[in-house]
Amino acid sequence: MKQKFICVFSILFFAAGCQNSTLKYDLNEQQKIYIHETTKNYGGLIEIYKQRLQHSDSEDTRYKLAQIYYLSNDFGAAKRVLTPVLSTTKNDSILVLYGHVESRLGNNDVALEYLNKAIAINHKNGEAYNVKGIVLLKKRQYDAARYSFNLARENFYDENKVTNNLAMLSILNKEYNEAYKHLNILYTKGYRDQTILHNLLYTLVKLNKMQLAKSFCIGHRLSNDPEILIQELKQIEPVDAIKFNEAVPAQSENQKQYAIEKTVPQQISKEKIVIKPEKQNKSQVGANLSNMTKLDISTETKKLASPTTNSEVISNTAISKQNNHVNQTTNKAKILAVRSGEHEKFSRITFETLNQLSKNQYIIEKISPTEFKLTFYDVSLPAKGVNYVISRISHSNRDFSNVTGSLTSEKTLIIQIKTKQDSIVKDFYAGPNSKGDAHCFAFDFYLKNK
Question: How open is the CA angle 435-439-441, to the nearest 5 degrees?
Fold first, then answer.
């Protein structure tokens, strides 16, 4: 009897040990996922979900892996991951994500096919109606797009996103008063993301509210030379001014805030939007720009509100990141060292800084397929100054054809890089350096034919 008891106890102990081991493994993986999501390390997330998929092929894992590929702009990889389950899945979320992917690849008819399949499975999927509306806008089927956006609203999809999309529809129809009404609803609520600000500016220009447009442009730092930008916008037709950019698929809150790289259209490529704050006087903006939360076009002397929140929408011309970098930066970006080098498929530039860079301390602008601008705010450089930074980046010359740089009086570092072929840039926090006394931030330039 005693021997039997010992045997049973041993089995239970062994089983408990296995459970603890598995639990520990799961906890470690979840911790890694949380860290990668927080730092937006999509490469790390991809590796985790790929390993999961190797051990156990499931729709859920494929969906999560495809989401990360989508967020990192690798739409081809997202498509490959989802394709094996498309013919059998009953998961409307998978079909909506695939609709996103096909639309981003320019296959709008295919996107509509799968969005309709998602709606057939779940006719209350508000996101499916919203994405369908965006695809229909791309196809210039405006009445159908409006109907789809209204269905998204009826099915409780994000009201702010739908409102912004309806504003885009009004702009495309040249119904600028109607567009203004939609955008002002969001502005009044406190939304200040670059899409909304630029769309409001474009609407004000088309409504011929030039003085208010100029004050608005200066108040939100949309350009260093507002008069030139306004003249450019006057000449641009809505269909040329709008760059379609679907809302990011449903993700964790951290990933919802991911902002994909925006390309400034060639029509205004000379006007590089928003680098440094203007020195403003009372004649330019009237008074303190942070007291009002509503933009009233009935008078051109109202004050403008300061930036607060983000939202996702279709984007238009002249888009860049939030331009309140300097005001929101809390830690000076002290650059200790700069390194560059070539890898098989990309060239990497690494900045070592005393404190970890935050997303509001720099922006990336893609001026053309081969021209990029990196802007760092409130920086201090090593003793050798800008020339040191330029020489360290120029050290990698396989993919870079030209590197120039400058440091403004406001301590803004501007690096302009020309690549030898069409490229894309991926940026991420790479962790501490080998000595643990600095933080590394990497910018990887992928040449499209590699």
Answer: 130
d(CA 110, CA 216): 40
- Local structure of residue 305 (DSSP, 8 states): P
**At 14, which helix (H) or strand (E)?**
helix 2-39
What contacts 343, CB < 8 A, 6 or more positions away?
444
Contact assessment for residue 70 and residue 249, using Cβ atoms and an 8 Å cutoff: yes
pTM listed for this prediction: 0.52
Looking up tokens 């969906």, which residue turns up?
63
Class of domain 331-447: mainly beta
| Domain limits, the chain | 331-447
Adjacency order of strands within the sheet including 362-368: 362-368, 371-376, 413-419, 400-407
**Are the beta carbons of 132 and 99 closer than 8 angstroms?**
yes
Cβ-proximal residues to 373 (8 Å cutoff; 6+ apart), any chain: 272, 364, 365, 367, 414, 415, 416, 417
pLDDT digits (tens, 9 = 90+) for 177-233: 999 999 988 888 888 877 788 889 999 999 999 999 999 999 888 888 888 889 888
pLDDT digits (tens, 9 = 90+) for 283-304: 333 222 222 234 544 433 333 3
Helices (H) and strands (E) counted in the chain, each on its own, are 18, 11
Record the tokens describing residue 290, joined without a space. 């942070």
Whole-number pLDDT of residue 11: 47
**How far apart (Å, rounded) are the C-alpha atoms in residues 141 and 133?**
9
Model confidence over 316-346: pLDDT tens digits?
333 333 334 333 434 578 899 999 988 888 8
